[in-house]
Amino acid sequence: MTSLSGFWAGQYSYPKDSHGVPTEPIAFDCKLQQAGALLRGTITEADVLYSGGSTILLARLSGTADEIRVRFLKSYIGASRDYSASVQYEGRIFENGNEISGSWAIGSFRGRFAMTRDPKYARRLSQTRAANDTVMSKT
Question: What is the third-level CATH fold of 6-137?
Fold first, then answer.
């Protein structure tokens, strides 16, 4: 099984608004760590619902993965009571472990999500670490 550990970029969407109009997807960044079947990580996203995107939300992720599916719970950290409910995610793994898509739910309220592994971010991070290591070795 390919490890899902790494940096991911994604988006989720709400069902149609009260007028039946689809809503704009909300982008998020995710750092996943996988140990066997266990998933842990963090998610950051802009609070577009209540602050118009001026506040960044942080959430903890915990769940499981097998060869074809993921299931995890997203719980916001230090957010207002508007974000007190945890969000259940279930998805399928595609593209050799580089894409996950599926659905999320808070009780009976449901929507869709998709996320892709972000190799550019991982590459930038490794380049930054290498540069920092070079600087540290010269001091």
Answer: Lipocalin (2.40.128)
